[in-house]
Amino acid sequence: MSVHTSVLPPDDRRAAPTGAEVTARTSFKFSADGLRAACVATDTDGHHLAEVWRLGPSGPRLELRTGLGTDPTWTQLLPLDGTSALISWYGQGGAQSLARLTADGHRETVSVPGGRPLRLLPAPEGSELLALGVSGGAAPDTLVMAVREDRPRFEELARVPGALLGGIVLGHRVVFTRLLDEVSHPVVLDLRDGTLRDLTPRSGPAHVLAAAAGQVLLARLAPEGNQLALADLDGDAPLRAVHGDTGLAGAVHPLALDPDGDRLALLTTSGARSHLTLLDPVSGAARHIDMPPGNLLPTAAWTGHGLWLPHSDPGRPRTLGWMPPAGTALELPEPARPGHRPARLETFPGADGPVEAVVYGPDWRTARQVVLALHGGPNSRWTLGFDPFLQALAAAGPAVVALNQRGSTGYGAAHTLAIKGAWGGPDLADVTAVGRFLIRERGTGRERPALYGISYGAFLALIAAAAEPDGWAACAAVAPFLSGPRLHADGGAQVRSMVERLDGLTAVRDRLGPRDVERLAPALEAPLLLVHGARDDSTPVAHSRALAARLAALGRRPGTDFHYLELPDRGHSALGTGTADPVVASVVRFLTGQGHPGPPGSVPTTSA
Question: φ and ψ at 591, to 5 degrees?
Answer without folding.
Answer: -70, -25
